[in-house]
């Protein structure tokens, strides 16, 4: 009777016993917490915009202008934007780690992902906080303040 040894795993994981921050565990925890918060934010958004209002027919420029005149809704939509993009970006990062085997490919894909997420967050934040419905005061759609 011969004894065979169990081969080493083919993954990059090695238990080292080092202390410090486990970024993958934090990313995993972020996905769970942001997912729960996103469900609340999205269902609240749908409830206010579709169920309590006039449905899809009631959503127009004036509706958004009236909604974004309140800092509460600006922050709500900002949280939804940031959490959605960070949550999705983290998920795509995990997919890149799983399927891109060459380090150069992984670096290029993660860099492009980071750029796409950062640019979209920056532009979305800019739109939410600089939105002005009164750019054309003669417009029939303008909902001007005072």
Could you describe the 3D structure shown?
This protein has one domain (23-130): 3 helical TM bundles of succinate and fumarate reductases. The protein is an all-alpha fold and 146 residues long. The model has no long low-confidence stretch (mean pLDDT 84). 64% of the residues lie in helices and 0% in strands. The chain is elongated. It has helices at 23-51, 61-67, 71-99, 103-130.
Structure, briefly:
Helices cover 64% and strands 0% of the residues.
Tags for this entry?
146 residues; mainly alpha; 3 helical TM bundles of succinate and fumarate reductases; 4 helices
Layout: helices, strands, pairs:
Layout: H1 23-51, H2 61-67, H3 71-99, H4 103-130
Helix pairs in contact: 1-3, 3-4
| CATH fold category name | 3 helical TM bundles of succinate and fumarate reductases
Report the count of strand segments. 0
The CATH superfamily turns out to be Fumarate reductase/succinate dehydrogenase, transmembrane subunit
| Rg, alpha carbons | 23 Å
């Amino acid at each position: 009777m011969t004894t065979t040894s169990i081969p080493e795993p083919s993954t990059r994981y090695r238990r080292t016993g080092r202390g410090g921050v486990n970024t993958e565990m934090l990313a995993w925890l972020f996905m769970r917490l942001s997912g729960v918060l996103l469900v609340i934010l999205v269902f609240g958004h749908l409830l206010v915009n579709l169920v309590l209002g006039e449905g899809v027919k009631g959503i127009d420029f004036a509706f958004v202008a009236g909604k974004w005149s309140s800092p509460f809704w600006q922050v709500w939509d900002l949280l939804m934007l940031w959490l959605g993009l960070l949550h999705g970006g983290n998920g795509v990062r995990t997919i890149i780690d799983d399927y891109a085997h060459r380090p150069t490919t992984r670096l290029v894909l993660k860099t492009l992902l980071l750029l796409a997420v950062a640019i979209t967050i920056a532009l979305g934040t800019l739109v939410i906080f600089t939105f002005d419905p009164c750019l054309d005061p003669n417009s029939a759609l303008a909902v001007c303040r005072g």
